[in-house]
Design goal:
The complex is a heterodimer of chains A (238) and B (180). Chain A is built from 6 helices and 10 strands. By secondary structure, chain A is α+β, with helices and mostly antiparallel strands. Chain A starts with a strand and ends in a 5-residue tail after the last helix. The chains are: A alpha+beta (238), B alpha/beta (180).
Chain lengths: 238, 180
């Protein structure tokens, strides 16, 4: 496979031609924040946290779905990017209801951790406080739409790793939400295999094991990576 | 330097942030050496004084008394600190916001879910009317610094106050701005 040479944050690196900017950066320990990205499933560029600057284009591009190119010059951590990233996080917190203090994922939440790392000590936007549902109809799992950031990780693991196709995104814009089958209670789904991969994938406290209380919801992402590696590379590596 | 005039205020919160303030333990003695606590639920001053240097405001703005109070505080204080998640975000106190107006919140709490003697409490002049929406402090008045946490741990409060006592800008690390 041909190699491409590019510059990320002033560092000359070589990457495989099919790699994304995000993969190339991570291979060289250059951190780029992500939220909707999940190892093992296709990227969709939904959360916009991985936006980077690429010389020659005025647009910011999501590193997770942008392929490397010969001679590309990438900046991952400018003042402008830091401002946008903090703004994105604030908008996510303002969009639905995220009181960390009473969340199952408090202390283990990717959204909470990103807010800390981006200096988000308050939200400058007005909170929307929408009234949203809690689906506790499944015998093992719960879905709290208040905590969902619509990253679609659960949808992608359900369709591409488990192959069940139970979860989808319905609606548009601010009215979008994750649905089960044809928008019916999760517990009545005829396609859900109760595998729990969606629960493992969730970055916030939106999907959880029933019975988990504040701060108890910890996830084991390695299980998802293990399955994907086993399937794609025929390597059963723990 | 003159002794710092420090105040703490308890608005729409559970007083957990004030409990955490008491958790400063022996550092309270150091604080006492360098600051006067001029107004607080912990002291017996009835009115909020003029020329306060620093105030820690616990709690969100939930009723009309809170709105009046926060404006008085702002007018009489140099540095206003939003103290804890309720003050910074609304947090648990704002859990009622999705229910809608004050009227529907009272309906839900005192009528729909009442087991006996369902009635909305009304004591004009004593019980202040609820606001339709619980607001974080910075939604109404400018805030100088934010101290997140539910409650902010004592070492986080100390990190902020120690800098303010020295006349410096507080600098909180990533782990010191954790919500929840």
């Amino acid at each position: 496979m041909a190699a491409k040479t590019l510059t990320i944050d002033g560092q000359m690196i070589s990457a495989e031609e099919n790699q994304t900017v995000l993969q190339a950066a991570r291979d060289h320990d250059i951190p780029i924040p992500t939220l909707c990205h999940l190892e093992g499933v296709a990227d969709v560029g939904a959360c916009r946290l991985c936006l980077v600057e690429i010389a020659g284009t005025p647009k910011l591009l999501p590193a997770c779905v942008t392929r490397v190119a010969e001679g590309m010059v990438v900046t991952t951590n400018s003042e402008r990017l830091r401002n946008y990233r903090r703004m994105i996080l604030e908008l996510l917190f303002a969009e639905r209801n995220h009181p960390c203090a009473v969340c199952v994922s408090n202390g283990h939440c990717e959204l909470q951790a990103l807010a800390m790392n981006h200096g988000m000590d308050h939200v400058r936007f007005e909170y929307r406080h929408p009234r949203l549902e809690l689906d506790l109809s499944h015998r093992l799992f719960g879905m709290d739409h208040n905590r969902c950031i619509l990253c679609s990780r659960c949808v992608r693991v359900c369709w591409t790793i488990e192959g069940a196709g139970t979860k989808s995104v319905a609606g548009r814009g601010a009215a979008s939400r994750i649905v089960t089958d044809l928008n019916q209670p999760w517990g009545e789904s005829t396609t859900c295999t109760a595998c729990g991969k969606c629960v493992q994938s969730c970055p916030t406290g939106a999907l959880f094991y029933k019975g988990a209380t504040v701060g108890e919801m910890q996830r084991d992402r390695d299980k998802l990576e293990y399955i994907v590696t086993a399937r794609e590379k025929q390597q059963w590596i723990v | 330097m003159d002794r710092l005039k420090l105040a703490t205020v308890w608005l729409g919160g559970c007083s957990g942030c004030h409990m955490s303030f008491l958790d400063l333990d022996e550092w309270l003695i150091e604080l006492h050496r360098r600051a006067d606590l001029v107004y607080s639920p912990l002291v017996d001053t009835k009115t909020y004084p003029d020329h306060v240097d620093v105030v820690l405001v616990e709690g969100a703005l939930c009723n009309t008394d809170h709105l009046d109070m926060i404006r008085i505080i702002r007018n009489r204080t140099r540095i206003l600190v939003a103290f804890g998640d309720c003050a910074v975000t609304g947090n648990v106190t704002a859990l009622r916001n999705p229910l809608g107006s004050a009227e529907s919140v009272l309906q839900c709490a005192y009528l729909d879910n009442a087991d006996l003697l369902a009635q909305v409490p009304s004591e004009p002049g004593i019980v202040p009317p609820l606001l339709d929406r619980v607001l974080p402090v910075h939604a109404v008045v400018p805030v100088e610094y934010y101290l997140p946490g539910c409650p902010p741990p004592a070492d986080r409060i100390r990190a902020l106050l120690a800098r303010l006592l020295d006349g410096q800008t507080p600098q909180l690390t990533a782990s010191q701005i954790k919500f929840g």
